[in-house]
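TICKET: design request
STATUS: open
ATTACHED STRUCTURE:
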């Protein structure tokens, strides 16, 4: 009988389930998009029930496929959009409000108040995170302060908080298991990454009760079993990890100094720093890379809010593209960017600037500027933002020579080459594109003995294509200087 691992990859724009064989090859996948809600400027929400219904449908599709393949699912791994915040009634399971998405900026003013109160050093030293609306803590605070049902349930000790992984586990186990993992906990701005515990001082500052928080487990751990009434039969859940850390695991970046960059809705660079907590002097984040057998591996992270989301904007809002993949054909027709730059600060701008008030800026327009130039500027912007992150790492004394990349954008060969040119680093693209889902599968498989160690997992990584820098130094310098000018126009003090 064939043996499989089922991986749930609940992302910002879609829910997916992927069936992997034990060598990490995807055998079948099912995907469903769901609705994005933008109720006010800077607000981004999802319907938790739609997250659940789409996830359940794709999971059932994959389970049915495994049976047709005459195989057995050994276990389930879950990976998820991080920081996105859901609060629900532990007796009814009903959310008290929509999921507040990681991109959401509604708590920016409250974050600024915390900074004025000089809480940033305390929070940074304990969590590795800068005070920002990006993280879960101030989203929780907003719900508690603004949703009457939440206040009522807190008094009754019936309110539960979870990131999406935690919410899905709760639903899959029939409302019995309230767990998350160390990587997702480390993105809440409430978790002490040194002690590996929820931090009482920060909870007190934000007036968030401890009893709403989930128990924190390793990434490879026993998270319980699915309810057979929900999934047809009972399956163990033994892997749970936030999406960017999952991609780091899927890319087998297990050695200190190894680095991956994922280009999905946003883009995220993670550098493995081993068992050392390294605090950046250049506004990068310090986070938990993974935790296995109680041992924590740390990482430095740079966050780009708009990557693939920029291409989605070209397709869905301004209607410059019929499908996202058309961008490569359009760009190839141009010999240069014609001096056009887009700073895609649609929901503020992330590392290393951390400016929540910034909004998008399109500069360098002339009478000759058309759709092609704007498409190119949008795609190029992701390369420039990555350059900013690599410069921050360099200024922190870290000089990576190779980066492993994944995500929908790197299917674009033009972008992958441009990225290598701009950051002046070799770019490696793996054969298995679904590295995020794969990372969750690896963690799940490790717990049930499919893999003996992370070294054993690493044997499953293989190269698809390598991109090496080809751009003239003078060209690179000019492009970057012009990008810096564009950034200055977008920053709001």
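STATUS: resolved
RESOLUTION: sequence designed for all positions
ATTACHED SEQUENCE:
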């Amino acid at each position: 009988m064939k043996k499989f691992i089922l991986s749930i990859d609940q992302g910002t724009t879609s829910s997916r389930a992927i069936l992997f064989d034990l060598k990490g090859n995807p055998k079948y996948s099912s995907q469903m998009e769901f609705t994005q809600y933008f109720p006010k400027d800077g607000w981004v929400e999802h319907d938790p029930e739609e997250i659940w219904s789409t996830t359940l449908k794709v999971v059932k599709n994959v389970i049915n496929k495994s049976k047709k393949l005459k195989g057995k699912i050994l276990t389930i791994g879950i990976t998820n959009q991080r920081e996105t915040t859901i609060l629900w009634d532990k007796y009814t399971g009903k959310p008290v409000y929509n999921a507040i998405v990681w991109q959401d900026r509604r708590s920016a003013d409250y974050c600024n108040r915390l900074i004025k109160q000089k809480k940033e050093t305390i929070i940074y030293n304990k969590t590795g995170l800068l005070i920002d609306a990006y993280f879960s803590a101030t989203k929780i605070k907003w719900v508690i302060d603004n949703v009457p049902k939440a206040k009522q349930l807190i008094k009754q000790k019936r309110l539960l908080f979870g990131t999406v992984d935690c919410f899905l586990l709760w639903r899959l186990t029939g409302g019995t298991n309230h767990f998350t993992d160390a990587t997702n906990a480390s993105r809440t701005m409430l978790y002490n990454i040194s002690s590996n515990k929820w931090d009482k001082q920060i909870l007190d500052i934000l007036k968030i009760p401890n009893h709403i928080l989930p128990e924190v487990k390793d990434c490879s751990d026993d998270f319980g079993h699915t309810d057979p009434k929900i999934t047809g039969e009972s399956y163990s859940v033994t892997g749970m990890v936030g999406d960017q850390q999952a991609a780091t695991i899927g890319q087998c970046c297990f050695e200190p100094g190894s680095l991956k960059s994922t280009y999905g809705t946003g883009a995220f660079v993670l550098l493995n720093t081993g068992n050392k907590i390294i605090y950046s002097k250049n506004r990068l984040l310090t986070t938990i890379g993974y935790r296995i057998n109680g041992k924590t591996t740390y990482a430095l992270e740079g966050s780009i809010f708009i990557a693939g989301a920029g291409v989605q904007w070209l397709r869905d809002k301004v209607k410059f593209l019929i499908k996202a993949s058309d961008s490569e054909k359009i760009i190839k027709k141009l010999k240069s960017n014609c001096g056009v730059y887009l700073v895609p600060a649609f929901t503020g701008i992330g590392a290393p600037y951390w400016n929540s008030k910034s909004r998008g800026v399109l500069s360098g327009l002339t009478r000759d500027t058309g759709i092609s130039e704007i498409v190119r500027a949008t795609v190029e912007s992701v390369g420039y933002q990555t350059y900013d992150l690599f410069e921050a790492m360099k200024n922190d004394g870290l000089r990576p020579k190779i980066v492993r990349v994944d995500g929908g954008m790197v299917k674009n060969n033009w972008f992958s080459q441009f990225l290598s040119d701009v950051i002046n680093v070799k770019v490696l693209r793996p054969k298995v594109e679904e590295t995020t889902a794969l990372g969750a599968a690896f963690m799940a498989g490790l717990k049930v003995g499919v893999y003996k160690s992370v070294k054993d997992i690493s044997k499953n990584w293989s190269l698809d294509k390598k991109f090496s820098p080809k751009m003239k130094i003078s060209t690179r310098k000019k492009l970057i200087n012009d990008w810096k000018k564009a950034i200055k126009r977008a920053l709001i003090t």
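CLOSING REMARK: The chain has 17 helices and 22 strands. The chain has two domains: 2-243, 252-430+462-493.
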